[in-house]
Amino acid sequence: MWEKARPVNDLLGPNDPACVELTGNALSPGPFVLVGDHAGDAIPAALGDLGVSQADRARHIAVDIGSAALGLALARRLDAPFVAQAYSRLVIDCNRYPDHPEAVVETSDGTGVPGNVRLTPGQRQARIDAVFEPYHAAIEHLLDKREAAGLASVLISVHSFTPVWQGRRRDYHFGVLHDGHRDDFALAVLDRLTREKDWTVADNQPYVMDETDYTVPRHAYPRDLPYLEIEVRQDLLPRRADEVAEVLARALAMARSGTAASR
């Protein structure tokens, strides 16, 4: 199945891509629902290139490199739906509260974003209406649909991280993010990944899930859903996306089986 949410705001023209792409089986009997906050790199034609070079638009500042390929590979293995944001995080970051300073950045990792400087409230709201809210509405609709069908859901937020940050090498392959709220499942996945012979995993690295995170708190917490925000090192993706997906799918399935049995 492949569905697309059509543009609903004047910011997106007829030739702009749909802001949400849904692949996989929305009503899969399996529990996993995959989301990709930073999967895409599109920029609305009305915004030009935001004043950012093509080279910088291909960097981690604009997109979670390889996360789309990983989400699709996981969706195939888990028979799960994957809700992916098509637009660059430089347009608006869908994992930040809309009024947060990091939602629309003026600089990122040393690169200026002139097209994001001194936005009017109306310009900012246009991005929220056209990109941010349709993405989260699609996730809500999917979870509502599954709940109405009597299906359990486990929310998996798929991200990737740059191997080097501010001169420091990040040598682990995976990061498991959680924040203490209903994190039994996330901790079970962390435990499973630590048992993988050729792979290394870090707990709440390279980022800590905190009050700046938006997607998991908005969708998992009110429904009391198990969740996981997984980070995968970008130099593994997309070249080794299938291999990584195999490892993660195994850990997710085993963790789900263990936590479900214990509840």
Automatic annotation (TrEMBL):
One of its GO terms (molecular function) is hydrolase activity. Keywords: Hydrolase. Pfam families: FGase. Gene3D superfamilies: Zn-dependent exopeptidases. It comes from the Bacteria. This is N-formylglutamate amidohydrolase. It comes from Aurantiacibacter spongiae. The lineage of its organism: Bacteria, Pseudomonadati, Pseudomonadota, Alphaproteobacteria, Sphingomonadales.
